[in-house]
Task: inverse folding
């Protein structure tokens, strides 16, 4: 169905690559018009494909599958189907590039399909953390606490919440969060370090390693 369309697009692109360097006048303008058309077609195809793929992921998450694709479902993980969404992958990419507003936009799209995605909320919490939007960061971190029973994950969240409280100069609340984090995961070194750093005010707070292990 798409073979003919892509054959024509590739032919037009090959023509541009071959003739544009030496083209002049009206011929050059014609090739530029062809290039603009190809760009618009490519963008439209990508948008339609991403929308289609998101619908497919949602269907699989709802349990719609056949015997032939059951093994693929098992391999990709039933517990976190949101990771198959293009928006999730884009959000991860934006976050790694430190483009936090763009990452937030993508993970908000993921939550429209999977509101209980704790990992998406972790990214949102950390993105808002980096943007120093304490209220939004706390909101998403608290949602993660409600969505998980993993002690180590809860410890990482409480440690991050403690850092937020410390940045707000609420030392008492910060110390309570760090103490909870240490209680939940005594092997995690960051809470103890942060308890001392919070009191001394001379050392940097630590949260990256414990959070990134879950992201």
Result:
């Amino acid at each position: 169905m798409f073979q003919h369309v892509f054959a024509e697009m590739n032919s037009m692109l090959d023509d541009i690559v071959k003739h544009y360097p030496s083209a002049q006048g009206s011929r050059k303008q014609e090739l530029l018009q062809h290039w603009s058309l190809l760009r618009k077609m490519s963008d439209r195809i990508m948008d339609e494909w991403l929308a289609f793929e998101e619908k497919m992921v949602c269907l699989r998450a709802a349990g719609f599958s056949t015997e032939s694709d059951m093994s693929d479902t098992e391999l990709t993980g039933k517990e976190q189907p949101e990771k198959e969404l293009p928006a999730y992958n884009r959000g991860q990419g934006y976050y790694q590039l430190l483009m936090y507003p763009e990452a937030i936009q993508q993970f908000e799209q993921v939550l429209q399909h999977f509101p209980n995605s704790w990992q998406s909320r972790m990214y949102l919490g950390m993105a808002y953390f980096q943007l120093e939007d304490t209220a939004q960061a706390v909101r998403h971190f608290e949602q993660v606490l409600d969505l998980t029973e993993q002690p180590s994950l809860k410890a990482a969240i409480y440690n991050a919440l403690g850092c937020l409280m410390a940045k707000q100069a609420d030392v008492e609340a910060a110390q309570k969060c760090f103490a909870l984090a240490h209680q939940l995961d005594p092997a995690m070194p960051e809470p103890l370090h942060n308890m001392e750093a919070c009191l001394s005010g001379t050392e940097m707070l630590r949260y990256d390693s414990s959070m990134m292990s879950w992201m």
